[in-house]
Amino acid sequence: AALVDAFEARVAADEFIEPKDWMPEAYRKTLIRQISQHAHSEIVGMLPEGNWITRAPSLRRKAVLLAKVQDEGGHGLYLYCAAETLGVGRDELIEDLHSGKAKYSTIFNYPTLTWADIGAIGWLVDGAAIMNQVPLQRTSYGPYARAMIRVCKEESFHQRQGYEIMMALMDGTEAQKAMAQDALNRWWWPSLMMFGPPDDNSPNTAQSMRWRIKRETNDQLRQRFVDATVPQAEAIDLRVPDDALAWNEERGHYDFGEIDWEEFYSVIRGEGPVARERMQARRKAWDEGAWVRDAANAYAAKAAARKEAA
Amino acid sequence: AALVDAFEARVAADEFIEPKDWMPEAYRKTLIRQISQHAHSEIVGMLPEGNWITRAPSLRRKAVLLAKVQDEGGHGLYLYCAAETLGVGRDELIEDLHSGKAKYSTIFNYPTLTWADIGAIGWLVDGAAIMNQVPLQRTSYGPYARAMIRVCKEESFHQRQGYEIMMALMDGTEAQKAMAQDALNRWWWPSLMMFGPPDDNSPNTAQSMRWRIKRETNDQLRQRFVDATVPQAEAIDLRVPDDALAWNEERGHYDFGEIDWEEFYSVIRGEGPVARERMQARRKAWDEGAWVRDAANAYAAKAAARKEAA
Amino acid sequence: MTEAVLSTDQLTQYLLRLGDDSLVLGQRLSEWCGHAPSIELDLSLANVALDLIGQATLLLNAAGEAEGQGRDADALAFGRDVMSFRNCLLVEQPNGDFGQTIARQFLFSSYQFALFRHLTASSNTAVAEICAKAVKETEYHLQLASDWVVRLGDGTDESRERLVAGFDWHWRFVGEMFEDDALSEAVAAADIGVLPSTLKSEFDSRLEAVFNDAGLEIPELPRSITGGREGHHSEHLGHLLAVMQHIPRTYPGAVW
Amino acid sequence: MTEAVLSTDQLTQYLLRLGDDSLVLGQRLSEWCGHAPSIELDLSLANVALDLIGQATLLLNAAGEAEGQGRDADALAFGRDVMSFRNCLLVEQPNGDFGQTIARQFLFSSYQFALFRHLTASSNTAVAEICAKAVKETEYHLQLASDWVVRLGDGTDESRERLVAGFDWHWRFVGEMFEDDALSEAVAAADIGVLPSTLKSEFDSRLEAVFNDAGLEIPELPRSITGGREGHHSEHLGHLLAVMQHIPRTYPGAVW
After folding, report:
1. pLDDT tens digit sequence for D217-254
2. Which residues are paired to B247 by β-bridges?
3. Which helix (H) or strand (E) holds A246?
4. D interface mutation test: which of B114, B118, B266 has the most D CBs within 10 A?
């Protein structure tokens, strides 16, 4: 109990908890779940955008997109490493992803249908991710907080690139404008869902806030995202697909329509439009790559043995 | 010896030999080799054209090409059945193809690079095939001769369709004309090679002619092909890529240049540009289809057993 | 019965739905050509593909005529981008293995057979005539697919597993085929088309009968994924179109 | 030394050869993105792809300038059909498994490293500058590929077999990279380019050294397949271009 009190006091004082420090088992488990979910999201998140690398409409866009997807892989890597400091192996985490035990962000179970979706993902999905992640730079677990600092720097870059794609489209032909508007129509609501269930239906929030694993509630973050994004849409003549959307002078925030939580929970249950494709692609890459990982391990062992012998 | 004499007399009298008739072992073996090679050529020959079905430039061309490639599959089927009458199973023949023991026409080891290649193959490759096959309608082995009658009817249809593609291209834009000429440049010499080595280097010809398995020599057939094809090329302003080509008034035939037999024998040895692709595709289809063939057999056995039991 | 008024655009869109279904599935099946498990199957699959491409040609030509802007079947097949395609999501699914292909074919042909049977009585002569011919083809497709569902389901353990996996990939796309919307209501009211929902019971009986013969159980169907009829497709269609349209787009205006 | 006169067309064609090699291999490698055997390899392969696409952009822009008809790298990458591409056959080969990809990468980077090292001294300033930057990238690609050749060759039995099979797919395309022709003679005479045949011994020594480390034997090389430099490609390139060019061809004139 003394350990718990000391731990809670340190967290309350905004000190970082480090891997060698004592921590409550529930804290450790919550962190592993959250960090690995985040890592999985980065890795699965490579797929919808990866779908457009081979078809990017210019060499510059191709290079930028490739670099972006590569960054996501890098984020996945930082995050798996952060999770590993909590005593769990990367392979184990990945098995949980492939078995369906572990979750990843529902947003990646929607398909990328046109080039405009690449813009919409950068702008909205990375934008929402940043809202979620900025506070995590001050999360209580040191390795996680430090990973998030690197992640956030790159995400905001991605968000600008995505918005820039949308700007170029809205500056283009009628077909391009229609493509951009359609992408916003399809990605808007799923982006709002990225902040998770409403606060009154989010049982873990209080504990996570107290442990400073989370630092703001789902609804607070969602509101911030709407407030930031609506003016950006308006600035390039895009219409946010929500008839209830209106500036509320009194609250100093945008009011917005009801989210279809049925849809959200369906996708959580694995019923997203391309959930099967995502898992199939990840499992295939992992299974077909097994011999390469085995070879690298075997070679490393041989090399170490040779060094020993020498 | 009496059997042999009787057999040779029947052949000399242009009678058909049927499966139940006695025949020399060498005759049987030569026939199996020739018929199965021909069957393999039909099946492998589906691949270069199949490569363009998904990219055919109009719905009509797509349908015509699909039907053509389907016909080739049908020819393969007739021919395997004809070979089976000689006491060898289809699976065994296919294993020989996949192991590299059996050969198929060298022409199919060249790639189809543009849509014009589909025209060139129909016009030249099917054209050459007809030259080879027309005499085989009177070949001494009955089932083979009857298969060839069906094959020839369809091949001449394919040849016209191929030429029609070339006509349309030569009637089109500069890019289309260039495509057509380039296709002729690439397919002309390999087509001439389809008739096999020159007569003075074709040791089996004499025996095969005596047995009426073959009815004309390689060089005779090749000359007939050149004589028929050159005017067709000229009619649509295509230039045959052979500087030595000239009408020889005295012979009443076209003279033509020396064939690169080194190239021919290289391709025979399996060194054709896409020989690996062809065998990879065939083996893959066969191996990945094994479970389907097994299932069909298992089901047939069950159904038969049920019928028996009833 | 008073015939409801159907706009040009509605008729065009309906014909696009019909034509795109056939076109996209025909294109998919043609990918098998030369690569099927046996020569016999190669011929069968090519046959089905040929029929579907033939249907697509007639239906898209009719769509072009309804539209009245001078576009023929080729212009529609090779000149639209992914969001203008109106096919259902089922037909654009990848071939996968032969089990997946047969599952898709069985589900689609069951739907299309019920549909075309009704459309032979369409008040639109073109639709009625096209479907009168097409329904015979589709009956053969359905027979072929049904036979193989039974053969694979009652063949070996592996074939059953693969077939079940093939159906598992596709169940989520069944609902879309039978979904009514404003357009299908309009064409049904005009006696030109049919309400997809009315075809469901015929589909269900056939599914039950064939699954019974195959010794398979029909699982509880997952949530429907929809969107194809409004141009919101899976990621697969764009790749299919990139290949299919490459030559006409590379040589605009050329005649082949 | 008297500088030989090089025609505009010759310079353009030479730059297309250089640029198309990088472009096509970059496009191929980018197909791996999100599907590699490990995250680390995903990042590495994407890195190489990125470098190659960057090189292609510079080289094709230079080709467009040399040509003088207002085409930039995008116009050349997305606006030419298969027969106008000048890359060697090696780079358009399919990825296959990781062993096949690494074999291709090792063979190509060995060639390209030797080439770019020479071209840093090109009398054409643009070529020299582009290659001065690119050669550093290529050195890294070569190191990465060499490391993996050793790791797979000296890893497990399976990895050795797969790597050997990967090389077996590609040996027939090695000869083409080192083949001299009229164009390479002309650019070498003008001190702009280099005779490919002169790079062969450097390539051979590296191959020998790395194969030695990997415990692999270099087989007798099969007959060379050639044609890429004149636009006569394998069947693979057309499919790659269909995908790569789809959007720009679908929306001609659009700016992205």
Report:
1. 999 999 999 999 999 999 999 999 999 999 999 999 99
2. B254
3. strand A246-248
4. B114
Asked whether the beta carbons of residue D37 and residue A288 sit closer than 8 angstroms, the reply is yes
Q: Which of B195, B196, B217 is nearest to B207 (CA)?
A: B217
Q: In D, which residues are within 8 Å of B178 by CB distance?
A: 83
Q: How far is Cα B248 from Cα C194, in angstroms, rounded to an integer?
A: 69
What pLDDT is recorded for position B212? 84
DSSP per residue, A57-73: SSHHHHHHHHHHHHHHH
The answer to whether residues A159 and A257 touch, using CB atoms and an 8 Å cutoff, is no
A 10 A CB-CB count for B12 gives 12
- Which sequence spans correspond to the domains of chain D? 3-217+228-250
What ipTM did this prediction achieve?
Answer: 0.96
- Euclidean distance between CA atoms A273 and A292, whole angstroms: 31
* Dihedral angle over CA of C90, C92, C94, C100, nearest 10: 30
Q: Cα–chain-centroid distance for residue B46?
A: 10
Partners of chain D (3+ Cβ pairs below 8 A): A, B, C
Residue C210: strand, helix, or coil: helix
Question: Residue D1's pLDDT band (boundaries 50, 70, 90)?
Answer: very low
Least confident of A141-145, A209-213, D87-91, D218-222: A209-213
Percent of chain A with pLDDT over 70: 100
- For B246, the enclosing helix (H) or strand (E) is strand B246-248
pLDDT of residue C176 exceeding 70, the answer is yes
Residue B63 contacts C where some CB pair is shorter than 8 Å: yes
Instruction: For chain C, count helices (H), then strands (E).
Output: 12, 0
How far is C-alpha A104 from the chain's CA centre? 8
β-bridge partners, A246: A255
Two structure tokens written together for A238: 């895009």
Determine the pLDDT at residue B213.
82
- Residues in contact with A33: Cβ distance below 8 Å, sequence separation at least 6, in sequence order: A102
Residue type, C9: D
Task: Specify the pTM.
Answer: 0.97
- Whole-Å CA distances, C108 to C21, C104, C185: 9, 6, 21
Q: How far apart are CA A118 and CA A125, in angstroms?
A: 10
CA separation for the pair B4, A18 (Å, rounded):
95
Yes or no, beta carbons of C241 and D246 under 8 Å apart: yes
Stretches where chain B sits below pLDDT 50 are none
Confidence of residue D3 (pLDDT cuts 50, 70, 90): low
Helix (H, G, I), strand (E, B) or coil at A183: helix
Q: Which of D40, D144, D29, D46 is nearest to A70 (CA)?
A: D46
Measured between alpha carbons, how far is residue B303 from residues B294, B299, C140 in Å? 14, 6, 22
Closest Cβ–Cβ partner in D83, D172, D227 for B114? D83
Question: Could you tell me the end-to-end alpha-carbon distance of chain A, in angstroms, rounded to an integer?
Answer: 52
Contact D158 A291 (CB under 8 A): yes
Q: Looking at CA atoms only, how far is residue B293 from chain D in angstroms?
A: 27
The whole-number pLDDT of residue C4 equals 60
Question: Which one-letter DSSP state was computed for residue D222?
Answer: P
Tokens of B273: 């540009």
Q: State the Cα–Cα distance between residues C93 and C235, nearest whole angstrom.
A: 9
d(CA D225, CA D222): 9
CA–CA gap between residue D234 and residue D228 (Å, rounded): 8
Residues 6+ apart with CB under 8 A from A231: none
CA distance linking residue A48 with residue A105, whole number of Å? 12
Residue C3, pLDDT score? 53
| Architecture label for domain D3-217+228-250 | Up-down Bundle (1.20)
Compute the distance between CA of residue D59 and CA of residue D66 in angstroms, rounded to an integer: 10
* Residue B155: both structure tokens together: 């091949």
- Which DSSP category does B21 fall into? S
